[in-house]
Write a sequence for this structure.
């Protein structure tokens, strides 16, 4: 039985979206998020497989997104991923400052 992940499903999903939407390398994104690049590479590969499986299953008629909706969804996901990254950086900086102030 695999051990539980220390990363939440939301964090993994946001990290994958950041890799996909930012144009940066997996190694760079992993370094910024504090995640091993190979772990992040596995998440991206798993998400790609899941996307391909979903694409193989037809969507109900009338459930398709328009091009503009897809563009907006892509833009919003990128914004969320960037905000999550900024939040994580600020959280780490606050912890660092708190340690410095405690000494």
């Amino acid at each position: 039985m695999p051990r539980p992940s220390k990363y939440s499903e939301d964090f993994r999903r946001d990290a994958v979206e950041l890799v996909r939407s930012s144009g940066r390398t997996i190694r760079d994104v992993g370094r910024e998020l504090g995640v091993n690049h190979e772990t992040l590479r596995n998440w991206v590969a798993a998400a790609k497989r899941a996307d391909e499986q979903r694409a193989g299953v037809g969507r109900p008629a009338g459930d398709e997104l328009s091009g503009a909706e897809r563009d907006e969804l892509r833009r919003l996901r990128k914004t969320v991923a960037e905000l999550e990254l900024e939040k994580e950086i600020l959280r780490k900086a606050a912890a660092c400052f708190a340690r410095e102030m405690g000494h």
Remarks:
- The two ends are 42 Å apart (CA to CA).
- The chain has one domain: 9-54+69-102.
- The longest helix spans residues 67-102.
- DSSP finds four helices and no strands in the chain.
